[in-house]
Amino acid sequence: MKTWKWGAVAAVVAVITAVTLSGLRAPEVTVATLKRGPVTDAVYATGEARAERRAEISPEQSGRLVEVLVEAGDTVAAGAVLARVERASLELGRAMAEQSLARARAALTEARRDRERKQALRGQNVIAVAELDSARRNEEKALADLRRLESALALEQDKLGKAEVTSPMAGLVVARAADAGEYVSAGKSLFTVIDPSTILIAVDVDETQVAKIRAGQAVTVTIDAYPGRRFEGKVARVVPLVSNLTRTAEVRIALTEPPEGLTEGMSATVNVVTRTIPDAITAPRDAVTLTDDGAWLFTVKDGRLQRVEFRPGAGDDSGIEVLEGPLTAGDLVVLDPAEDLEEGMRVRVAK
User: Fold this and answer.
1) Strand, helix or coil at 278?
2) pLDDT value, residue 82
3) Residues of the chain with pLDDT > 70: what percent?
4) DSSP letters for 57-72
5) Could you tell me which of 278, 183, 265 has the C-alpha nearest to residue 223?
6) First-to-final CA distance of the chain
7) How does pLDDT run across 286-337, given as a tens digit for each residue?
8) Whole-number Cα distances in Å, 150 to 40, 90, 104, 111, 146
9) Contact at 8 Å (CB) between 203 and 223?
């Protein structure tokens, strides 16, 4: 009889110990409470700062650079000389064209005198008509040669004028592609100049989302170069073209107060508020897993996990609207659920 009693006590102790150990081994989770209130629908996208007004400046004349007068970061005025191409060969070309033109002028003068003299002789019936016609043709040819060489000289002078690389606009030099002594080709970009006052945030938005966006909508922007800061802005324009490659359209955002030092290429993330729902049950974004069919999250009831699927609605960086599903305000939901959590698992709620 005593043996049976001691066995029963041992079994009870074993059960209590197992339950206690099970509770200690239960994973700890952080939870939040579902709330009812306003939620905004937003579109998220990433992009970069980009100037609306910019110029890619190329030399109009090929040659070796003898001077580069600006560095990246310099401010320049419209018409400022940025670099010079070697002029020696160009000046030689102009000098040769001038010499050829001088000979052509002398040849035309001589041809004209010959034609005038033969015209007078023909009036006296001293020479044949054919001889006068030949003199006229010689004069016409000399005149044509003069016109051709005048054009050639103008071309050489134009080349000489293009030895200077100038900026077509006032702005900031953000790129320089060559140094003095290097050979440059006409038409190849040598400098990039931007107008910093026209810098916008350009982002690519998926074609399934771009229809929600309109000019004038409020935008919140974070810029990697300014950690911890948020900037307000508005949609300036939606570029009416979807890329065949990425299936995205470009949206440009104007900042209300651009930060000092903002320049091209800085990475940015934007949150475009497309509408506001004044009263909705919202789940923290960190609790929600989105799927092709909808969304799901874990709730905690009586110390155990329940996997609950629902249809999501509007959402921003703080929460997602619960459109349909067995969720109510006050439910506890798990934040940042670990991958090994499962339906029905016992858990401990972090204090």
Assistant:
1) strand
2) 95
3) 91
4) E--SS-EEEEEE---T
5) 265
6) 47
7) 999 999 889 999 999 999 999 999 999 888 777 889 999 999 999 999 999 9
8) 71, 16, 9, 18, 6
9) no
The β-bridge relationship of strands 289-290 and 267-284 is unpaired
CB 270 within 8 A of CB 317: no
Helix, strand or coil, per DSSP, at residue 325: coil
Q: What are the structural domains of the chain?
A: 29-41+277-349 (2.40.420.20), 44-52+196-274 (2.40.30.170), 54-86+167-193 (2.40.50.100), 89-161 (1.10.287.470)
Q: Do 159 and 186 form a contact (C-beta atoms < 8 A)?
A: no
What DSSP assignment string belongs to 76-133?
E-TT-EEEEE--HHHHHHHHHHHHHHHHHHHHHHHHHHHHHHHHHHHHTT-S-HHHHH
Residue 323 class from Cβ within 10 Å (0-12 exposed, 13-18 middle, 19+ buried)? middle
Strands 218-223 and 267-284: antiparallel
**The model's pTM:** 0.60
**Other CB atoms within 10 Å distance of the CB of residue 120:** 12
Query: What angle, 0 to 180 degrees and rounded to 10, lies between the N-to-C axes of helices 129-161 and 88-123?
Result: 160
Six-digit token string for 68 = 């580069």
Nearest to 65 by CA among 176, 193, 192, 194: 176
Burial 16-32 (b: 16+ CB within 10 A, else e): eeeeeeeeeeeeebebe
Residue 25's pLDDT is: 75
Q: Between β-strands 35-51 and 199-206, what pairing exists: parallel, antiparallel or unpaired? A: antiparallel
* pLDDT value at residue 24: 52
Token pair, residue 347, equals: 């858990």
